[in-house]
């Protein structure tokens, strides 16, 4: 594994779920957001600065399979201290499924072991988002 910083340039600071949504939405492929489900993670440093966004899975209309090991391999390689999970619902429905909630819990448990905070999980659609943190679906990470 290799880490190479990008120098001293301004990175977006993520302080709210809306900040995360705006940045995620700006990077989401408009041709896929209503077509197939995709899973991404936003990588954050200790100051809440976005180190990057990694797409880790792409599925079909109703689901995508996410490898939790890839989530943490990516987070550790980028030296992220926290991550924000994100996936889209092509249907436009913002309600999390039982599988969404179970996966979030599983990833949070892994984060505790590896000391990588799962700060939020967003469901992203074309025009809006659902924040697991804002809706108290997950416990506060801090």
Structural class: alpha+beta
> How many angstroms separate the termini?
29 Å
Counting H and I runs of at least 4 residues, what is the number of helices? 3
Q: Within the largest sheet, what's the order of strands? A: 2-1-3-4-5
Give the topology string: H per helix, E per strand.
HEEHEHEE
Q: Percent range for helical residues? A: 25-40%
Shape: globular
Rg computed from alpha carbons, rounded to a whole number of angstroms:
14 Å
**Average residue pLDDT:** 91
Uncertain ranges: none
As a percent range, the share of strand residues is 15-25%
The largest pleated sheet is described as: 5 strands, mixed
Write down how many β-strands occur, each being a DSSP E stretch of 2 or more residues.
5
Task: Kindly list the characteristics that best describe this protein.
142 residues; alpha+beta; five-stranded mixed sheet; 5 strands; 27% helix; 24% strand; globular
Tell me what you see in this structure:
This protein has 142 residues and is α+β, with helices and mostly antiparallel strands. Helix content is 27%, strand content 24%. Strands 2-1-3-4-5 form a five-stranded mixed beta sheet, with helices on both faces. The longest helix has 17 residues, at 98-114. The chain starts with 16 loop residues before the first helix and ends in an 11-residue tail after the last strand. The model has no long low-confidence stretch (mean pLDDT 91).
């Amino acid at each position: 594994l290799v880490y190479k910083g990008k120098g001293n340039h301004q990175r977006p600071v993520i302080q709210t779920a809306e900040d995360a949504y705006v940045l995620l939405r700006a990077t989401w492929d408009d041709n896929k957001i209503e077509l197939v489900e995709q899973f991404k993670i936003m990588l954050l440093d200790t100051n809440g600065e976005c180190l990057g966004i990694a797409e880790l899975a792409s599925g079909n209309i109703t689901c995508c399979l996410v490898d939790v090991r890839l989530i943490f391999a990516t987070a550790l390689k980028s030296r992220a201290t926290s991550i924000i999970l994100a996936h889209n619902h092509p249907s436009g429905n913002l309600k999390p499924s039982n599988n969404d909630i179970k996966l979030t819990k599983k990833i949070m448990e892994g984060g505790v072991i590896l000391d990588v905070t799962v700060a939020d999980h967003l469901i992203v659609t074309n025009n809006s988002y659902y924040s697991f943190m804002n809706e108290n679906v997950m416990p506060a990470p801090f």
